[in-house]
Amino acid sequence: MPQDASTMPSADANGPSQALSVSELNRRARQALEQDVGEVWVEGELSGVSRPGSGHIYFTLKDDRAQLRCALFRTRARFVAAPMRDGDRVKVRGQVSLFEPRGDYQLIVEAVQAAGVGELLAAFERLKARLAAEGVFANARPLPYPPRHLLVLTSPTGAAIRDVLAVLAARWPLTQVTLIPVPVQGREAAPALISALGLLNRQQALDPARDAILITRGGGSLEDLWAFNDEHLARAIFHSRLPVMSAVGHEVDVTLADFAADARAPTPSAAAEQLVPDRRERLHRLERLAERLGRAQRARLETEAQRLDHLRARLRHPGEVLAARRRQLDQLEGRLRRVMQARLATERRREHHLRQRLALRSPDRLVEQAGQRLTRARWRLHQAMPRALDRHRERLGGLARELQAVSPLAVLGRGYAILEDAQGRVVRRAADTAPGQALEARLGEGRLAVTVTRTEACDTTPHGDRASG
């Protein structure tokens, strides 16, 4: 049980021999804090949130005038739904205690509730949105790879410059590095960085080999890195004629300087790795290329040696070549002569065949053949015409006899007559005429003009009409 403060022995009463050990004093202080303050709710802004591999979460809770270290152990951290980020404003419930090994006053957190976005983070987001709208984050110039002369703006005593120099020395020691010492935290950091950027850009014309700027520092809380969220610094980076790489904080840290720069790296070491190639990789590559070149040279020499041997084997005395060419020429001449003879024989046969066809198609022969055909046709015509005339005469006589048999003229020839009125109509009945009417009588031979004097109806007594001409 903790002792009451009034019962604790004093140094004056007990003397040096009764002095407490540090661990005993820290134990009593922890017991007094836990008993007198106990469990409380505290509201503040998160800063320096750390998540080691153990699963515990360590952070600082602060307001405008004070800050409090806090520890959220793994068994309780798994019940926190919302992510805990620097700048968030939260309410935490916990037990006030003291970490005895270091004598750190702290709050053992049991529960976390979101209390709104932190003021710093809210200001950061507002400024970020405004600068993005103005185009301050539009830089994307390529950095020289590797740079000939790298200008590093950072603290000369920080771990960042040591990491950068170590990586550059290991990877590419040919790059010249100039450290521009500037504060990287506090009120004077942003003005110093802006002044250094302006000076380096003005001096760039005097030393064109200076071709890249690296702004870097190690990790820290949001407050520690706040100088790199300065609006004027972001604009100075944007207007820099020299390309700028920003590597501020750890991988989770993001500042306005990162957005305004031409390139960003998550850490100082990563920035150095991005800026220069690895000389060991280049050496290995050169070795591989040298090996490939050696193999290619050997293969080429072997190929050319084989080709030379082959050509040497094919090389013959000019006399042999000329003799071979003469034999080849003789062969070609013989082939040409045989081909010409064969071609002439073919043309002669073709000419003979055409002459035969022309003789068969001669105009005299064709006229003679046509005359023969005409003579034969005239003879057949003379033979056929009498027979055809006889047949036609016989047929005409038969048709004439048939026509004569049915012809009205034949009836008239037997003494009959045909009466016609003035209009040429045949008069068939006496009733169709009137006394005094002029008629025409058609006889077997000739015609008579008659006049009707009287008409009588037909009766059984045969009487004929009387007519006078």
Automatic annotation (TrEMBL):
Annotated ranges, domain Exonuclease VII large subunit C-terminal: 139-450
Subcellular location per the Swiss-Prot or TrEMBL entry: Cytoplasm
InterPro entries linked to this entry: Exonuc_VII_L, Exonuc_VII_lsu_C, OB-fold_nuc-bd_dom
Swiss-Prot/TrEMBL catalytic activity: Exonucleolytic cleavage in either 5'- to 3'- or 3'- to 5'-direction to yield nucleoside 5'-phosphates
Record-annotated OB-fold nucleic acid binding domain positions: 20-112
UniProt keyword terms in alphabetical order: Coiled coil, Cytoplasm, Exonuclease, Hydrolase, Nuclease
Pfam families (alphabetical): Exonuc_VII_L (PF02601), tRNA_anti_2 (PF13742)
Enzyme class per UniProt: hydrolase
EC number: 3.1.11.6
Major location category of this protein: cytoplasm
Signal peptide: none
Family, similarity comment: Belongs to the XseA family.
Assembly mode: Heterooligomer composed of large and small subunits.
HAMAP family: Exonuc_7_L
Function, as annotated: Bidirectionally degrades single-stranded DNA into large acid-insoluble oligonucleotides, which are then degraded further into small acid-soluble oligonucleotides.
Protein name from the UniProt record: Exodeoxyribonuclease 7 large subunit
Taxonomic source organism: Halomonas rhizosphaerae
Gene transcribed to yield this protein: xseA
